[in-house]
Amino acid sequence: MRIALADDHRLVRDGLRALLEAEGRFTVVAEADDGLQVVPLVEKERPDVLLLDLMMPGLHGLDVIDQLQRRAPSTKIIVLSMHSDEAYVVRALRSGATGYVLKDAPGTELLHAIEEVKEGRRYLSARVSQQAIDLYLSSNDASEDDPYLTLTPREKEVLHLAVEGSTAAQIARRLSISPRTVEVHRGNLMRKLGLRNIEQLVTFARSRGLIGSD
Question: Tell me, what DSSP letter sits at residue 32?
Fold first, then answer.
């Protein structure tokens, strides 16, 4: 089975690779340490399963999932996260993940999760309440009124890089677009979100869990 790894910590990726390759049934075909790298790598390698950290530089894992649903829908996605809060789990599932495994879970659980999602079944770590998740998924979703969902994929990329502290010129180089185009995207996303400055944008990103707190 072909596996891709996306985590910004080298030690985590090395540990995952060792665990998977020791089984003999899995081959790690791609690794990424930045959210912007993940989609093109998955499109190129077409792994069976992607193991994805949510909190990555460049682009948040949830936005990576959204893009992959359109551009590489055959790849199953398992989120690896330290967060057991149901809100995180539900956001991942609604974005299109088919598995959610906590980072402190034993290796055997991750291996089982990979087999489950490859067979088309959903897998959640044992500590995540299935009943609570089902209630979340069956409840009326207020996300239709969420202005973040009105952003284009490019606007989300610009947002993530901006709140990480990148200048327009740096964002332009990362995304292979002009600084003027970056400014246009930044202006559009600020207008859609009803924000006026970068401080408000950073506060918004933290409130959404798109970046960590200080």
Answer: E
Residue 2, beta-bridge partner list: 27
Q: Start-end ranges of CATH 1.10.10.10 in the chain?
A: 144-207
Residues of the chain with CATH 3.40.50.2300: 2-138
pLDDT value for 131: 64
- Classify domain 144-207 at the CATH class level: mainly alpha
- 0.85 surpassed by pTM: no
CA dist 40 to 1, 14, 46, Å? Answer: 20, 21, 10
Would you place residue 146 in the very low, low, confident or very high pLDDT band (cuts 50, 70, 90)?
Answer: confident
Residue 143: is its pLDDT beyond 90? no
Give me the pLDDT at residue 87, please.
75
Structure tokens at 183: 């400014």
Displacement of CA 17 from its chain's centroid (Å): 19
Residues 6 or more apart whose Cβ sits within 8 Å of residue 117 = 49, 76, 77, 78, 98, 99, 123
φ, ψ of residue 78 to 5 degrees: the values are -115, 120
Report the candidate in 58, 38, 62 with the shortest Cα–Cα distance to residue 50.
38
| Of 48-62, 112-126, 135-149, minimum mean pLDDT range | 135-149
Q: Is 140 exposed, middle or buried (0-12, 13-18, 19+ CB in 10 A)?
A: exposed
CATH class name, domain 2-138? alpha beta
